[in-house]
């Protein structure tokens, strides 16, 4: 496959997030840097597309629309827009630096994330079935 044939920026949804990222099982599909956004901050998607191209074949880069994916918004306690989280080996590291600019984002996933507090990835919520 040629590099230009591969889709750099992935879009994730409530229904496929865990299957594609395997975030709560230890990220066996690799490291993921995910931008959670809502319509008022869609302008950050173009930056995320550029980031995805720069990190192609190194890290997975994706976006999640929190307006349309309420389960993911709740699961990861997304409270601001945008909110970026780096998922690696069953842990998540929130990008808390004040600047959303390319070099800062690249440095974060290239190792600076180790300076950020980590949290375990919240488990996937399964529906509760009640039998009578």
Secondary structure: number of strands = 6
CATH fold node name: Glutaredoxin
Rg measurement, Å? 15 Å
Class from helix and strand fractions = alpha/beta
**Helicity, as a percent range:** 10-25%
**Terminal residue distance:** 53 Å
CATH architecture: 3-Layer(aba) Sandwich
Biggest beta-sheet profile = 6 strands, mixed
Shape, per Cα inertia axes: globular
Overall pLDDT metric: 88
As laid out across the biggest beta sheet, the strand order is: 1-3-2-4-5-6
Name of the CATH homologous superfamily:
Glutaredoxin
N to C succession of SSEs: EHEHEHEEHE
| CATH class wording | Alpha Beta
Number of domains: 1
Regions with pLDDT < 50 over 5+ consecutive residues?
none
Q: How many individual helices?
A: 4
Strand proportion? 15-25%
Describe this structure in words.
The chain is α/β, with parallel strands linked by helices. The protein has one domain: Glutaredoxin, CATH 3.40.30. The protein is built from 4 helices and 6 strands, in the order βαβαβαββαβ. It has helices at about 15-20, 45-55, 70-75, 100-110, and strands spanning about 10, 30-35, 60-65, 85-90, 90-95, 120. Strands 1-3-2-4-5-6 form a 6-stranded mixed β-sheet. The longest helix has 10 residues, at about 45-55. The protein starts with 8 loop residues before the first strand and ends in a 12-residue tail after the last strand. About 25% of the residues are buried. The model has no long low-confidence stretch (mean pLDDT about 90).
